[in-house]
Every structure is written in structure tokens, then in C-alpha cells.
Amino acid sequence: MSLKLAVLGLLDVEPGSGYALLQRFRTSLGFFWQTTHQQLYKELHGLHEEGLVDCETVSQETRPDKKVYSLNARGAAELDALLTKAATPTKIRDPLLVKIFCGRRLGSDALRAEVESHRRKHEQTLALYRMLHEQIGKRPAAVRQRYHHPELTLRLGIRFEEAWLAWCEEIGAEL
Amino acid sequence: MSLKLAVLGLLDVEPGSGYALLQRFRTSLGFFWQTTHQQLYKELHGLHEEGLVDCETVSQETRPDKKVYSLNARGAAELDALLTKAATPTKIRDPLLVKIFCGRRLGSDALRAEVESHRRKHEQTLALYRMLHEQIGKRPAAVRQRYHHPELTLRLGIRFEEAWLAWCEEIGAEL
DNA sequence: ATCATCATGTAACCAGTTACATGATTAC
DNA sequence: GTAATCATGTAACTGGTTACATGATGAT
């Protein structure tokens, strides 16, 4: 249900083509939710069939035609309904944890190398998140207001990456 | 692939029936990976078809028959192969984040209530993890050795729950 | 009596991934 | 010429969830 919510939420801010939505997704919700263009297009078809979004085909001169989707009244109602339903916390579901859990067969060297590789990735992600957070902080208050909710999620992202980093360092030293 | 790895890993420690494996799963790997009995049984059927596990039907007097699965040489090789493949980090994928991201339509009251409900759940989970961690710490060194890898994953669990808690408190106060 | 535990499964469905496919335009 | 960007899709498959199903034993 989360992708549906995500797409409705993106369309609530601004209408757009599948392609445009995917780009907005990648630089926002995409930091903590994943999708592919295939799934996004599928979701948009589904929403259209359900009558929750309107779709207008726009011809362009130098670019291929595009389908611009926009939220209609029924879609807005559905978005509100989804927002009202309680969300339940999910598990971490990171394959690294399964590997470490089952890792007694693997030597310490291999595990340490894997943890180090993850550490580097999380370090990069943390740097990115901090940069994005700083950028939001620099905007005038009026603009910052519009980014308030996304900014809240970014802060969890930062805390998580910090936790990953600290853990990788701690257990890397112990392995 | 992670469930496959998880099941092979569990069988590597000790053979067991689907039912027994599920119970071991729930009190260990299940803290950060999810599964249902349906999926576990399906996975076991698959592993058996692939010839990675052996299966022996055991009749019991007062209990229904059970199928005891055990890792064979091919399964052990497959486990090693899976352990050697690098794992890539995943996204958080928690529906609460999607909701908050799209939450400008929802009032602050509703969001605050939802965050508070999550805070309570994470508080409970943290308490559980800390208790489990303490229990491991109390065991004699020889036993602790066997729980070393699981204990490492538990420590990430604790860090994550702490991050969730701190974040819920922070943004709950701000909303 | 009623409920939890032991023990296993089928079936339908939804969500997500990977591979394959097309074709123009623009920037280097 | 080569690669990136714009723009959309189909199809096969894997992984995960939910609903339905059975039936004995042991504890309260």
C-alpha cells in the first residue's frame, strides 16, 4: 500500500508524467522507499483504472508524448483514507544482518571486509543526507515550511545512518 | 535470497522440522527478518527439491508426524556460496515514513498520535532487545561464544530502536 | 468445554525485481 | 559516433501476505 500512498502523495503536491514522478521519487521518498519505473507505471495504470487520478496525453514537439497524471477528488479522498489507517512498524530486513547471523561459517576476515564495505556505503549516504539537510536549512523560512515533512523523514535517515556507522565501526573492531 | 540463507543457516546449527525451525526463527532472525509458516514450508520444499537438504519423516506417538530437515553437503556448499556473495544495503521501507512524508494533508494531532504510538512500540522492542542482550551477557564465556554472531545483530537492533525512540521524541515535540 | 500447542499444507493474491524492447533528441 | 536523457511499456519471475483447512493432545 505504501507505493500507492507515495504516488498519491507526490501527485497531491504536483501533477506530472510517470517519468517526472519517478525523478521526484528518486530524490525524495526514494531515500527510504524503493521502486523501479516498471512498478511506478504499473501503479499509475492501476490508479487510473480505479479512477483516482486523471490522465491527459500531452504531445511534445521535440520529445516523445507524455501522459500527465493528476490527483482528482476521489484520489484525494483515497489519500486521506490511507493516511488515516495506522501504519505498523516493519523489521530492518537488511541481508547483511542475515549474513552475519549465519556467519560463523565465514571467516572473520571475510566478515570484516563485508562490514567495512557497508560502513563506507553508509558513510556516503550519511554525507549525502547531511548535505541535503543543510541545504533545506539554508532556504528561507517560507520555503522550509513546505519541506517540513520531508525534512522530518530525512532526520530519521540521518539517525539511522549514524547508527549503522557506529555499529560497523564497533563490530569491525571486534571481529 | 535472504530467507534461503536464513533457513540454511538455521539448519547448519541444528536439523529440525519446519515447525521447530519457525520457532527458532521467531526468537532469533525473526527480530529483523520476517516470515510466515507458509513461506518457511515453501522454502523447505524448494530446498529439498534442489537437493540441498535431506528430509526424514518421523512418526511420533502422541504428536502428528513431522519432517525433520537437515543440511547435506550440497546445502553446506550452497550456504558458503551465498555467504560469499556481497550483500547490498537496503532502504528503511517503513510505511510510517511514507505517511509522514505525505502527511501535510493530515493534521498535526493525527501525526503526533501516530508517532506516539510508534514510539511506544519501539520502546517495548528496545526493552526486549536489552533484556535479551543482558541474558546473553550473563552466560558463561563458552556459551557466549556460540551466540557471538547473533549478539552482533542484536546490537544493531538496539541502536536502531534507540534511533527510532530519539527521533519519535524529537519530532513528536515539534509537530 | 475451551484454548493453546504441535504439525503441515493449498490457493489466491499482491508487491517487487529483472530482462527485454523501442526510438527520438541532445550534448560531448 | 557514442552516450545520456526523455518517455513508455510488456512479460516472466520471485518473494511475501492473507485466507482457508485439518486434526490430535494437553492444560485450565
UniProtKB/TrEMBL annotation, chains A, B:
Residues 7-80 form the Transcription regulator PadR N-terminal domain. It comes from the Bacteria. Residues 92-175 form the Transcription regulator PadR C-terminal domain. InterPro entries: Tscrpt_reg_PadR_C (IPR018309), Tscrpt_reg_PadR_N (IPR005149), WH-like_DNA-bd_sf (IPR036388), WH_DNA-bd_sf (IPR036390). PANTHER family: TRANSCRIPTIONAL REGULATOR YQJI, TRANSCRIPTIONAL REGULATORY PROTEIN. This is PadR family transcriptional regulator. It comes from Solimonas terrae.
